[in-house]
Predict the 3D structure of the following.
Amino acid sequence: MNPTEELFREDAHLLRCEALVLGLEEGGGLILDRTVAYPLGGGQAGDSGCIRAGDQSWRFADARKSKQHPGAILHLIEGEGPPPGTPVVVEIDAARRDKHRRFHTSTHLLCALLPYPVDGCSITEAYARLDFHTDEAFDKEALQAGLDRLVAEARAVRHRWISEEELDANPSLVRSMSVQPPRGLGRIRVIEVEGVDLQPCGGTHVANTAEIGEVRVTKIEKKAAKTRRVVLGFDA
């Protein structure tokens, strides 16, 4: 089975696309030839949404990477779904994607403000958290002020691709201790927050830090002797 074309890699604001059904895995995983739905991975939750074929529709509660077919993305639906070869329309939940994009870029701003390795990450529509490998204490008010400043500066956020050789020549670009960029494709996707941060990332992001809005540092925790956790939330 061919890999699913990942439209979200090039345009995280794209919410809808036309696609063709390739198959259905046991457990309700509908595989399409292309999709706007981001699958769970890299600490970021998967998208949810709806798949339509004519006057029929199927909700998918999550999107995951297939273990049986490398490169394929599963849309977790209930029931049999449309048969292979059926043209469909995929539409993701806009509010969920919006929260994911805003939170994910916010975590990159945290990485710019806190120059420590990251050893844990979770990005959902309800909150985002990063675990930093350090025994240093964090100042909550100073961290909040830093986030407010970077959001207000309306810095451009863009993605580009570099070669695996370029990454090997700049290993400090990788901030995560637990999630490594995928290898074997010949290129690595990186996210750049203009003048602030540059690191490998496959997730969905805003196009400008001003889109993040009022993100709040809701909690700072000491999780272990060498782990400090920062949790982010939105006022609304």
